[in-house]
Structure formats: C-alpha cells, structure tokens
User: Which sequence fits this backbone?
C-alpha cells in the first residue's frame, strides 16, 4: 500500500515544469511563419498605401505597374466589396472610395520578388481629392468635425456596441449608477484631472507576416503569425462571401503578439491578392516601418476624471469621460471603449458613478487590442486621482486604497457583486515589498527619491459566449497528445495546457505533447488567444476533454476487472484499483482495448476525449445605465509599487525597484506566472518612460527602433519582486484565472505617483521622458532653468 | 547586378555560394542555407534578432553583405548545440526561464556567447551591455540575464 500511496500526488499543477517549447526555441528549430519554405513558386506582395490622412480616391491607374516584368497581379478595392471587422464591420479589405489614414491600403501587388513588387507599387498612380482630417478625439466627437464614416449607421455591429450614426462616435458606453450630482455635496474633497495617454505600438520583435494560397478548388490556405486563426477564418470568409470550410488558417509559433496579431489586420490583404494568382503562395511581410503605422496601434486616450470622498476617506462619487482615439477603423477598438466603461470605477467600490466612454474615429493609424485592452490607459489617470484624493484629505494612499478597494462581495460599478478576490492581499504585499512608509536617501546629491503604488483590475473583454474546445488522444505507448486552438505567443500556454492535461488524466507531464501548429482544419475551435483567457477557458476545456478520456478508460477497466469505476484511478499512466490493488498501464489498453474475460472478442478501442467550455452566464448591460446581472466572467486584480530616482539636473527617471502582486487564483506554473509579472512590468515601465507614437498631421514621425525606443536590458530596475496571490476562481481549472495582460496595467500610474512623491509634479501623461520631466520641474519651480 | 562566388565556414562546415552583390548575410543564411533560426526583426540593424557571430564577433547579419563574408567563419544558433547536448548558454537561459516567444532568443544566445568567449566571468552590468542591442519584448530581460550568469558560473573552472 505504501508504495502506491507514494504515487498518489504526482500532479504537475503548481509545479515549475520546464517550458514545452524551450528546446526548440534555443536551438533555432522553432518554426515561425516567415520560416516556412515555399519553394520557387512563392510570390511576394507589397501594398500601395495612402499618403494622405483623409481623402477621396478619384482614380487608380495601374497600367504602368502591370507592364513591369515580374508583376503577376495587381488588385484594388474594386474586386472586394465586402466589409470586414470583429465587433463592427467598418472596413474594406482595400479602400474603395475613401482613405482614412496614412497607410490605408489602396492597391496590392504580387510579383516574383519583393523588389519588383516595391517598384510596381511606386508605378501605381492614385489621384485623390483631399479632405479635412480629424486629428483629435475630443474634436472628432463634436458636431463640428467632418464625418469619417458617413455609413456608420448601416454597418453590421455586435448587439452590445452602440455606434452613433451621423457622428464619428462608433461606440458610446454609459454608466449611470446612483446619483452623482447629489453626491458631490457630501464630499469632503473632490479632485478633477485631465490626462492624455498617447498611442503606442505593440512592437512584437517578429513583424506581421502572412502567406496565402488559393488552390484549384478555390480553397484558401493562410499561414500567418496569428493570435486568432479561427477568428481570421471566420472574418475573412465572411468578408469574401465564402464558406468558412473553404478557408484554412495555419498558425505556427508567434514571435510576440501583445494583441497586435489578434483579429484581422494585414492578413486579408494577402488573401485577396492570392485569389488573383491561383496556385501560387503569396507572402506579405511587413517592414518594421509598416509595423509601426499599418498594423494595430494602442488607442490614445483623453480622459477626464472627477472623484470625491468623505472625511473618512470613503469614495462617494466618480464622474468619468473617456475619449478614445480609435483611428481610422474601430472594428476591434469599439470593445475597448466598452471594457473601460464597465471597469471605469477602477478596482474600488463607489456608490455613485457616471461614465461616458466614447470610441471616436480619427484619421490616425488603426487602433486595436493591446495587452491590457484599455486598462493601462484608463488606470494611468484614475490611479493618480486616487493618490491626489487621499493626499487632499491627508490620508496615506495605501490606507485610502485599503478602505476603498474591492473585497469579496463588494458591489461593482455595473451593479453585481465581486467574486472572491485577493486584491487587499495584493495591496498589502506590494506595499510591504516596497517598504511603504520608509524613506530611503537618494544615491547622489542631485537626485531625489520617491515611491509610488497603484492597483488594477481587468476582466477578459470578449463576447459573452467566446468558446474553447480541445481534444486529448492517447498513443500506443500511453503518451498523450492534446489538440488546442489556442496559440503559443510566448506566454507559455502550451506548457500550461500540457500540465493541466497531465494532471486531469493522470499521466506524467513529460508524456504530453501539444498538436501544433494550430491549424483550423485539424485543431479544435478556440475563439482567440486574447484577453488572458486561455488558462481559464481553454484550461476548462482541457479538463473536460481529459475527464472524457479518463471516463472511457476507466469504463473499460471497470468492466474488465468487474469493479466499480469509483474504486479506480489513473496515476502516473497506470490504472489502479484502490480496492483490489490491481494495476494496468495505459499503454496496454488505450489503442487496442482489452480482451473480454472469456477471450471471445474485445472491449474498448482507441481513446480520444473531447471537451468544450463556454461561459453561459454573462448577461447584457442596460444601454442607458450600464447596470446588469453579470457583465463579465471575472476580474483579475493586482498591485504594483515602484521606487525611483529623479535626476534633478536632467529629469531622467531611474526605476530602482519594482514590486508586483497579482491574484491569479491558482498558479498552474508559478515560474511562468512570475515571468509574466516581470515581463509585463518592464513593458509597462517602457510605456511609462519611453514610448509614444509621435503623430503629426496623421503621420507617424518615429516608425523605427532608433526613434521609437523600447526598454532595453540597460533600463531594467536593479530589483524586481513578484508575489503570487491565490484566491481561487470558482469556475477556473484548479481555481486559476489569467494574468498575462494585467502585469502592465498599473505601471504607468505607479511610476507617476512615485515621481510625484519624489519631486511633487504631475504631468498630463506618459511618456515621462527626461526632457518632459525636466521641463515640468522647471514649470513647477522645483528646479531653476 | 554582380554575382560573387564565395566560400564561408558555417557552423563548422565549409560552404560555397553564388550571391548577388546586394544580398545580406541574413538573407543568405535564411534563404540559401535554410538556416531560419536567424530572425529578421527590422532589417535595419536595430533589434538584434539576426545576430550571428562572424569570425567570433557578434554582427547584425542584416547589416553585413554576404560577399563580405568570403573566407569568414560564421556561427548561427543552429551551430551552438553539440550532437546531443545543448550549449551551456542555451540550457542556462532555458532553465532560468529566459525564453518566452523565442524570436529574440537566437540573437541573444549569440551575443551572450560572444561575451562569455571573451569574458568568462562578466559582471551583471557587462551582461546587460552585451545584450543591450538585442530587443526583447516578452521577458523584461531579467531571466535572460540570470541565464547568462548561470552559464558563466557553470563554465568557469572552479
């Protein structure tokens, strides 16, 4: 018995199992989309793009380009009348009548080399009639602004998005909770602030790339660096008016996504081009420059906050206005407006809230989802206001947050109750980790030191019924292959999937393989790899598939041994009976079954388990009040604290220490969770200190790594601490919920609050570059010019 | 367009190639030799994803012409591991959790190898400096640096 008891807890859940993809990645064997070999038939695509932020297309002349030797096809919007978009179908694949940003695709060329395609693009002549551009979201939302989408009222739209026809507002989300105007009188202190968070880019180190081929049966295959193979299948098929079953997407490893490779961005272009050169694969690889202004960028946000509390520090009211700079098309971005609306109280219990969140069309680059989906931008201002309000009534900012932050059972801004949450524990860990209240001396006489803290919450923002499915299949030797449609972007989802399948079925982690690459023809459906939803959603589907396989196995053995199934278990790949102490390795039965006891025939057969998961309990929200039963599946919460120094002579900020604490429900692989917290914090720090798409008249002025700086190894703090908090998610696998995006949400305000602590200045928004900080210190009289 | 007949030693093996004058080393490695472990992140010498060793020194292979490499010795990520065993830098960065999406990993490994070849016992600042030209958007560099430290520790004779 003792020997068996030893085997009882081999579960890999909570273990730092090695990444399943690491060996491939350190040897150069891992295949990314641009690495796939297509041979000599491969054609190369380049795109003719609009040089104007806003104009009507008068005429497109491709005749000279067509004469160029090596050019195989040129297409324009004329051939593709269908709209495309995730939540709001507001874009054509190629522009048909109007261009709305610098970079808008007007024509596409397929040629035998990239150089020829590029030459052909230069030979295409487009006549435009210029129109006044909209370059500011607040102006864009006003009645004075020219209309960018006169057909907005006719676009197909998801039923939870509310475009305002006849305006540039593609979504207006409202919260009306309690009575804000009455509440101001009861407030002891009120703060009001405006912030601007500029557009930034995701900067995956792997640029967008897609290859498409249309075969003789008009079936389309698309290979790409993709977070969303299934959504791409669906959206592109819909736009082109073909069956989803004729569209196949194959998605190998993704070299960083951060949201930029979700939904459809450049993939539809190359599919459209490929329809004109049947049989040939056609590749479109974005240049780094194109990556900066033609792939998705993060929305800019002009935010206006007003909030008040009583003399005890209890938050009484918030009034928020968000003007999201959605850029030229907001097919995906409209839902960021909604997410920030239903999260607009921040992670606090506030009885009276009024929020208006507007998604506004501008003639800026197309915005889309980016790690945090609106939360970093919204929290940037909100968490600074919280500090201001606390200081205004003379209360410590950590204590103020302790009083007001969400606890289990708190009433949320949408009216429902908070599920079990470890937010107060995260706050305590972050404060303790940064030694809150302890003033450290600066490292040099010309420096000043400060500490800052910020909280966050974020829900997976998605349609209410975003589904996952998986299968598990056993091989002759008892090893397990797991089919998933979720994508490995670096976050470690394949590793976590393998751990969960191993644990749920009862085999060692090392026996599990993931069926990759994700291929919509053979892989099970997954909505998208976004919203930090896979560990939770796909995880639940894996548990269900593994249990299905397990049931099939145990039924065979129970029948063979004539024992009840309840007395059997699968441990380390062996079926055991607690009662009879019999055992049989999986390999003996998972393909061929077992002979019947009288040896006359067989029972069982190949084992394959299937499992799905889809939330069924998310309700709509009232369009006028934003109130409802359950707006989202759950919220992941957390806290970050930093200590930094400001150089008084240069304005340069050096972050010395960063502390992160997030409630992940259950860390399936703690090392991977810590890695997300570290990497997200550095991405957040980078967005706080360095990053900004410099837009002038609609043109991105800095589309290169020299002019658009991201954090390098030289910029990271000397000390980074992470704390995992585990308050279980009731419907999560082993209690798990996601953490991928959350780790960069509080970084901007934590740093801004620390700058204030150090030198007493606040700025309109990031990036807090040396120049900006220095000039703000001059303005405030902190230093003399 | 001029074409050149060059011979180079790639990952230990002598190779010959006919390359156009404007072909970069990156393009030659990826397209002529299918050594796709060398990654193209910007084609402008700014991200470090295409870093390889040329005569022992790390170079952005997108900024070097193939023809310049005539007679040279090139190491790519595919040449780091032995038949059965990973190079100590590969296994250390892997063990410390320095790999996420993996796109910057080949370049980082080669920058780290160049560092450890000339300085077997680097300080943390020297490690940061050695990989400052290799952009990573996933890891925040923390575990990569720990991995290089570990590799140094394991390879320095005690």
Assistant:
């Amino acid at each position: 018995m003792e020997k068996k008891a030893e085997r009882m807890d081999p579960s890999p859940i909570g273990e730092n199992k090695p990444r399943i993809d690491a060996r491939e990645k350190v040897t150069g064997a891992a295949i990314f989309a641009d690495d796939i070999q297509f041979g000599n038939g491969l054609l190369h695509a380049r795109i003719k793009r609009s040089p104007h932020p806003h104009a009507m297309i008068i005429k497109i002349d491709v005749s000279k380009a067509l004469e160029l030797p090596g050019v195989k096809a040129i297409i324009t919007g004329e051939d593709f009348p269908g709209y495309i978009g995730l939540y709001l179908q507001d874009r054509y694949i190629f522009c048909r009548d109007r261009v709305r940003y610098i970079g808008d695709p007007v024509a596409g060329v397929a040629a035998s080399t990239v150089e020829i395609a590029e030459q052909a693009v230069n030979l295409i002549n487009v006549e435009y009639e210029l129109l006044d551009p909209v370059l500011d979201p607040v102006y864009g939302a006003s009645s004075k602004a020219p209309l960018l989408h006169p057909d907005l009222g006719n676009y197909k739209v998801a039923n939870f998005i509310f475009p305002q026809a006849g305006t540039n507002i593609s979504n207006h989300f409202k919260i009306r909770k309690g009575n804000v105007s009455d509440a101001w009188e009861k407030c002891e202190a009120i703060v009001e602030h405006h912030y601007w968070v500029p557009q930034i880019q995701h900067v995956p180190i792997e640029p967008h790339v897609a290859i498409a081929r249309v075969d003789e049966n008009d079936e389309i295959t698309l290979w790409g660096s993709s977070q969303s193979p299934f959504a791409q299948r669906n959206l592109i098929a819909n736009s082109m008016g073909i069956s989803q079953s004729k569209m196949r997407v194959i998605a190998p490893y993704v070299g960083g996504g951060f949201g930029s490779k979700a939904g459809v961005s450049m993939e539809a272009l190359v599919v459209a081009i490929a329809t004109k050169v049947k049989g040939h694969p056609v590749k479109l690889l974005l240049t780094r420059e194109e990556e900066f202004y033609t792939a998705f960028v993060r929305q800019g946000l002009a935010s206006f906050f007003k909030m008040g509390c009583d003399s005890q520090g209890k938050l009484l009211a918030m009034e928020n206005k968000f003007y999201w700079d959605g850029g030229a098309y907001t097919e995906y971005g409209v839902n960021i407006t909604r997410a920030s609306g239903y999260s607009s109280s921040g992670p606090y219990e506030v009885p009276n809230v009024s929020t208006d969140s507007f998604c506004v069309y501008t003639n800026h680059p197309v915005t889309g989802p980016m790690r945090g989906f609106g939360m970093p931008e919204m929290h940037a201002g909100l968490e600074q206001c919280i500090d201001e309000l606390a200081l205004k009534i003379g209360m410590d900012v950590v204590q103020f947050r302790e009083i007001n932050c969400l606890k289990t059972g708190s009433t949320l801004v949408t009216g429902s109750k908070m599920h079990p949450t470890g937010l107060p524990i995260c706050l305590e860990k972050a404060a303790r980790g940064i030694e809150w209240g302890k003033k450290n001396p600066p490292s040099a006489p010309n420096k000043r030191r400060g500490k800052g803290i910020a909280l966050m919450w974020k829900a997976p923002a998605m349609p209410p019924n975003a589904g996952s499915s998986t299968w598990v299949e056993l091989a002759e030797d008892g090893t397990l292959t797991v089919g998933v449609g979720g994508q490995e972007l670096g976050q470690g989802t394949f590793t976590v999937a393998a751990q969960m399948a191993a644990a749920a079925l009862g085999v060692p982690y090392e026996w599990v393989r993931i069926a990759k690459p994700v291929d919509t023809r053979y892989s099970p459906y997954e909505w998208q790899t976004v919203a930090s939803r896979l560990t939770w959603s796909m995880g639940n589907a894996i548990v269900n598939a593994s249990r299905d396989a397990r049931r099939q196995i145990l039924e065979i053995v129970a029948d063979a041994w004539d024992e009840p199934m309840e007395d059997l278990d699968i441990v380390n790949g062996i079926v055991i009976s607690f009662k009879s102490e019999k055992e049989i390795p999986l390999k003996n039965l998972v393909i061929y079954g077992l002979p019947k006891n009288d040896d006359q025939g067989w029972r069982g057969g190949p084992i394959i388990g299937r499992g799905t998961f889809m939330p069924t309990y998310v309700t709509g929200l009232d369009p006028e009040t934003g109130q409802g039963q359950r707006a989202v599946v759950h919220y992941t919460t957390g806290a970050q604290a930093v200590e930094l120094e400001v150089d008084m002579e240069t304005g340069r900020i050096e972050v010395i220490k960063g502390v992160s604490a997030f409630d992940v429900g259950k860390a399936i692989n703690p090392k991977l969770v810590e890695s997300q917290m570290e990497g997200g914090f550095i991405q957040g720090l980078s967005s706080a200190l360095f990053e900004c798409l410099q837009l002038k008249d609609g043109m991105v002025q800095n589309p290169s790594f020299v002019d658009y700086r991201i954090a390098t190894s030289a910029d990271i703090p000397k000390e980074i601490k992470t704390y995992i908090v585990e308050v279980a998610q009731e419907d999560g696998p082993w209690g798990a919920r996601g953490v991928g995006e959350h780790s960069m949400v509080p970084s901007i305000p934590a740093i801004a609050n620390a700058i204030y602590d150090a030198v007493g200045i606040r700025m309109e928004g990031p990036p807090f570059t040396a120049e900006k900080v220095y000039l703000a210190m001059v303005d405030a009289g902190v230093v003399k010019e | 367009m001029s074409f050149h007949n060059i011979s180079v030693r790639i990952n230990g093996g002598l190779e010959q190639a006919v390359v156009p004058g404007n072909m970069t080393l990156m393009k030659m490695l990826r397209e002529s030799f299918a050594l796709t472990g060398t990654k193209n992140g910007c084609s402008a010498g700014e991200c470090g994803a295409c870093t390889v060793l040329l005569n022992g020194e790390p170079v952005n292979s997108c900024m070097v012409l193939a023809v310049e490499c005539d007679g040279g010795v090139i190491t790519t990520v595919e040449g780091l591991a032995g038949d059965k065993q990973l190079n100590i830098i590969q296994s250390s960065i892997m063990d410390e959790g320095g790999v996420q999406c993996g796109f910057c990993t080949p370049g980082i490994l080669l920058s780290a190898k160049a560092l450890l070849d000339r300085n077997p016992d680097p300080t943390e600042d020297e490690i940061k400096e050695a990989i400052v030209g290799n952009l990573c958007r996933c890891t925040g560099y923390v575990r990569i640096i720990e991995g290089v430290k570990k590799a140094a520790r394991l390879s320095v004779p005690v």
Summary: Chain A has 18 helices and 33 strands. Residues 2-30+466-613 of chain A form a domain with the Aldehyde Oxidoreductase; domain 4 fold (CATH 3.30.365.10). Chain A touches chain B through 56 residues (CB under 8 Å). Confidence is low (pLDDT under 50) at residues 1-7 of chain A.
